[in-house]
Write a structure and sequence with these properties.
The protein is α/β, with parallel strands linked by helices and 361 residues long. The protein has 14 helices and 13 strands. It has a domain of 141 residues: Rossmann fold.
Length: 361
Amino acid sequence: MNSSRTEVVGIKPWKRWQIDRFLREPGNRLHYAASPAQALRNQARHGGRIVIWAAREPEGFAAAAARQQCPLVRIEDGFLRSVGLGSAHVGGASLVIDAEGIYFDPRTPSALERLLQDGGFSDALLQRAASLRQFLVSRGLTKYNVGTLAQVPIGAPAGRRRILVPGQVENDASIRYGAPEVGSNVELLRRVRIAEPAAWIVYKPHPDTEAGTRPGRIADTAALRHADQVVRDVSATALFPQIDAVHTMTSLLGFEALLRGIPVTTWGLPFYAGWGLTQDHLEIPRRSRRLSLDELVAGTLIVYPRYIDPENGRPCEVETVARQLASDSAAGAPLERWAAPRLARLCLGLYRSWMSAHGKP
């Protein structure tokens, strides 16, 4: 049995160059399996571990891995990712690698939850977290750094409470697993209106749904039955100074609002809920610790993810990635270093042509 072999599954072909950077280690051979079933068969034959893209893990996969005593590791993009969307085939500079669970699935503990619940945070780490938080806020950085920074005025009458509601991809795993009572953008808007009848509600659709690459897009007429304004193609950082609060299911935008001192109400179970920093409609009894904001930042942005320098592809600290994000987002467009290599994009085009020729979606 070969303990140095890793079966990697759930990774789209164009993205493998990026995953190689994070997972490849001396003496560890990576093998990309075509399906979860193949990954299990290969591991049973050759040993080693399985690494799976967490959002593509099928039901029952963890139990099947456990039956053959296979170490299972889940991976996902980190929280400071890129200048541009993954759906636009822009590579990311951060990855979370979790051998316990995954941060967006509250049904079971994750390494991030354990860190936040039980971990120690030194004074030096908290000072670093405070400096990082201040840098991100001052430079207007978010996970993807898309949308214009042009000011889109919130049209609320003077003195009226202004609430930002971010749309989400409705088949996203964080919604499927972490929003058991509110599972759609329209339902979220409806509940926010009931909870805040006098507020000026601003709905910001998710960029992927607007691009038509993921489900969850709703017509303005449907949104405006509950909201007062719809804003699109604008960065959340341009909206934060104009709002009084955020209501969300599980969106990372809620975490980004917390960094800026904006009150956040959660209708689902995101990783940043349950620590005393948000108003929550659901509870996670496992999360009994009360965290400071910088403890949350230290665990979420410094300790939990891994980072790769987009300039040279080498491991780096979060501050290096933050500086690159600030520089490239200020340039106004994604730069070449964030895009998949030309060969990977060519392979993607050939793969799409083959799928189309064979009548596959």
